[in-house]
Design a protein that fits this description.
Blueprint: E1 2-3, E2 7-8, E3 10-13, H1 19-30, E4 34-39, H2 42-49, E5 58-62, H3 68-82, E6 87-90, H4 105-133, E7 136-141, H5 154-174, E8 179-186, H6 210-222, H7 230-243, E9 249-252, H8 254-273
Parallel strand pairs: 3-4, 3-6, 4-5, 6-7, 7-8, 8-9
Antiparallel strand pairs: 1-2
Family: Belongs to the short-chain dehydrogenases/reductases (SDR) family.
InterPro entries: KR_dom, NAD(P)-bd_dom_sf, Sc_DH/Rdtase_CS, SDR_fam, SDR_oxidoreductase
Pfam families: adh_short
Length: about 290
């Protein structure tokens, strides 16, 4: 796992104490990469890796991603420790299930702070290095729910939709600097994402949304039976980065592909239905 055959690549990965982030850290370390791994609990990360991989090339970083100064300090420590930065993976996040009406102001701000502000903080801190060296790869882990929305996932979708827009613009902005951007869109993966201690629920429920309550119960029961294999998912992300090419969007999972295809079909039907009416609001040609 080298860059230009000269040295191990250095990866800065957020959200590494569980799920895809943890699996990425394991595989990267096993492959010889240097890994700066941010987490809310460095102790939990080290415990999860203990006895499984050589952690001599690991820099665990307890970071609040919503704090710009903490993020800048983490990136500075990464450069000081490894002397390089090649790949940035914005993976931190959590699930939230509630109807839009049930979602409080605080819950909205907390989610967007992680899903959007946190990513922006990491990008501001890392892009100067990638831009100056005219190389690098940014991986923003979104979700198929960044392409399509379903009831009960409104807040989570809002954050991922924002990440998708940010990532599209970013990809065009940094292309001339030799920096590539990949948007990863997983479906349901067999991680702890839907576990009760990971999935966030609203502080208050409304009796008016029984279908959302049923959906939440179904998702809690889905835990441990998701179709996606996190080992294969992490390996696919690493392969695309090392290949240095591939499409802007990397869909992971047959369910993700099916959801995205249905969204494209629905959007095409909508565009076809408004093809003749849309121009009616243009100025009349003189």
């Amino acid at each position: 796992m080298t860059v230009a055959g000269k040295r191990p690549g250095t990866w800065f990965v957020t959200g590494t104490s569980r799920g895809l982030g943890l699996e990425l850290a394991k595989q990267l370390l096993s492959g010889g990469a240097n890994v700066a791994a941010t987490t809310r609990s460095a102790q939990r990360l080290l415990a999860a890796l203990s006895g499984q991989v050589d952690t001599s090339r690991l820099l665990p970083l307890a970071v609040d991603l919503t704090d710009q100064k903490q993020v800048e300090q983490a990136v500075a420590r990464t450069l000081e420790r490894f002397g390089a930065l090649d790949t940035v993976v914005n993976n931190a996040g959590y699930g939230f299930l509630a109807a839009v009406e049930e979602t409080s102001d605080r819950e909205v701000r907390d989610m967007l702070d992680v899903q959007v502000v946190g990513v922006w903080n990491v990008l501001r801190a890392t892009l100067p290095t990638l831009r100056a060296q005219r190389s690098g790869h940014i991986v923003n882990v979104s979700s198929v729910l960044g392409l399509t929305a379903v009831p009960g996932w409104g807040l989570y979708c809002a954050g991922k939709f924002a990440l998708e827009g940010l990532s599209e613009a970013l990809a065009a902005e940094v292309a001339d600097f030799g920096v590539k951007v990949t948007i990863v869109e997983p479906g349901y993966f067999r991680t702890s994402f839907l576990a009760p201690d990971s999935l966030a629920l609203p502080a208050e429920h409304s009796e008016h949304y029984p279908a959302v309550r049923a959906m939440v119960a179904d998702h809690l029961e889905l835990q441990g039976n998701q179709p996606g294999d996190p080992v294969k998912g992490a390996a696919a992300i690493i392969r695309q980065v090392l290949a240095g090419d591939g499409p802007l969007r990397q869909l992971l999972g047959s369910d993700s592909h099916a959801y995205a295809t249905a969204k494209v079909d629905a959007l095409r039907a909508n565009l076809d239905a408004t093809a003749s009416s849309a121009p009616a609001t243009d100025f009349t040609a003189v």
